[in-house]
Amino acid sequence: MADREAPIGVFDSGIGGLTVAREIMRQIPNERIVYFGDTARVPYGSKSRDTIVKYSRQIIRFLMTQKVKAIVVACNTASAVALEEIRTELDIPVIGVIKAGARTAVSATRNKKIGIIATETTINSGVYTHVIEALSPGISVVGKACPLFVPLVEEGTFLKDPITEEIASRYLEGLKKEQIDTLILGCTHYPLIRSLIGRVMGAYVTLVNPAYETALELKALLFEEKLCRAEGSGLQEGLHTFYVSDATEKFQQFAESILPCSVRNTSQINIEEY
After folding, report:
1. Fold identical between 8-96+212-273 and 98-210?
2. Is residue 226's pLDDT more than 60?
């Protein structure tokens, strides 16, 4: 059985998974996190299934060297195409970000029309549609790939530029015509432009952030598996650790800007060694 004092491993293709880490810190503040962002190989959304599975296995092998007690695949693309396969290879709990967001969207929709924006690989996998239809067969699901959102978020300097709003308007125009009333932000980068997406879609559309729902799912899972870190064990500043495959300084600056903690320990590793 895993050590309940051990950390939780969280990984993403880059910085987007920090939105999941942020919600875990808020919802389960007593837990420790080891985060890995694959900043050298981002984005995952245009890569093949085999490549994404390979990358995910490498990252998990690294996280296991950190003796994590559970792993959160904080990447919709990896959750869509690699989660079920890698889950069977591990003896610790592993969760993704898709099922929690799908359940929330099904509960939120009023007209049974749900939209999903995500990477090309996530949309093409059809995983959100499959999960939603299993939960509620009468719901209509419309997906839209938004490949430029990830590099725009990663770059950072264009987030408040008119060009980003123009791109968002073009991507989301079709979903507005479908009259959806609920929209899943199906990539962990997308909550970082949530206000922009909300402006484009309008007040009628409920935006679902799977990061928040995933943190709640993890909290319940740790309780069920008796893996919750002991109350009062203390969580000193700097106890979370962060690793990337490239661009350490840029990652650390961004992490500092969105996380509710100081990001003192960020290290670059050669993930290809795992």
Report:
1. yes
2. yes
